[in-house]
Amino acid sequence: MKKIALLILLTLLFSQNVFSQQPQQKISVNSVIEGIQKFYDIAYGIEAIFVQEATIKSVNKAQTSKGKVYFKKPGKMAWIYEEPTKQKIISDGLTLWMYFPENNQVIKNRTNQAFLTDTPQNFLSGLGNIKRDFTVNFVPPIFDTEKNVLLELIPRNPQQSFTKIFATAKPIFYQGQNLYQIIQTTIYDKFGNLNKISFYNISVYDKNQAFAISDNHFEFTPPAGVKIIEPPATLRAQ
Fold first, then answer.
1. Left if phi > 0, otherwise alpha if psi is -120 to 50, otherwise beta: which for 60?
2. CATH architecture of 2-236
3. Contacts of 140 (CB under 8 A, 6+ apart)
4. Exposure of 132 by Cβ count < 10 A (0-12 exposed, 13-18 middle, 19+ buried)?
5. Which of 108, 109, 127 is nearest to 118 (CA)?
6. Rounded distance, CA 75 to CA 114, Å?
7. Where are the domains of the chain?
8. What is the pLDDT of residue 117?
9. Which of 55, 56, 77, 116 could anchor a disulfide with 161, C-beta 3.0 to 4.6 Å?
10. For residue range 86-104, what is the model confidence (pLDDT) as tens digits?
């Protein structure tokens, strides 16, 4: 469960429910990448319902989880798991808390120390660059039945925690710009395990609207009696 929880931190999506459908047009990989990047630059807050499907290949075991997620720049996030078990993954941009009530346990870490790659943290803080961090290709047949674009993202620098990401990007039109929002990702690791996350009932806020997402979502106080686990002090100081 902890490994699955860490994997979701790699899934940095922004979707919407207020932008209009983009008119269909001829596309290229570069135009889609640029459209995704522009959307990430504009989106300062997001809230949605998520469904996570994690599969461990070695034991042929799959688990589906559901809950609510919040993002807010710079670097704030809250994953509130409701099914099948309750748990929380919360970051205020500095401290990352992973709370597992069924184990009466909390893992505390610095947000930047918790990631094995800079890429996820860069996107959370609004500094990510898809073209710089990934090699991107279309996945045949390029479009799904809803005319969303299918992509494969390969990290330019090899990562320990994942090998590739399959993404579904929805075309949208916002303030005269052709943008793309990633509405689903599937992350693969070197062992063939996969972690798929889909978002529903999504709301997105620009810089002037981000106040609509309360900072209370990103605050966490460990319950009394819960065991708090921290990495060695030498790691926390890095």
1. left
2. Clam (2.50)
3. 150
4. exposed
5. 127
6. 13
7. 2-236
8. 53
9. 116
10. 999 999 988 999 999 999 9
